[in-house]
Fold:
Amino acid sequence: MVNDFIDSRLNQLLLAGKNMEAIKLYREETHCTLQEAVNHINNLKKTLNIPNDPEKSNVIPLWKIVSGLVAIVLVIYLLFPSKKTVQTEIVYNSEWDGSVSQVQDYLRSHLKDYDSYQAIEWSKVTKVDAPQWKYAVRHKYRARNSFGGYMIENYIFYLDEKGAVVSIRAVVDK
Structure:
């Protein structure tokens, strides 16, 4: 009953996702009820293979998203295994900033103004075969002295098997 021009216009509107405009146009041309217009538009959408609710047809189910993310994390985990190692030594450099906690504790209790302390450089902790100490680490830092001036200090800290600082030797910069 609707001419070819109106049918082609309805098809264009439906393909563009403008369902309400298609219903309005059909009602204006045929003077039918709203329910009849909706039924006619739904039938047209079926012949054009357009889902009734295009917004819902584009939504990906949550389980697909979650399973995809789990698969991605699993692939990353398998391709890039963690390089963290368990520390078996008592004295070691921090992975974060290279510091040695036992030396920092020693400085905290022995510096006159620990709040002014600024680490400059840490060497790697080395094992030493000596009867009085087991580890050595060089540390360069700056801190205030008794007169309030900043001094740069460079020391080798020797630690025993329990991690206690037992000896300190100044390093002379050349």
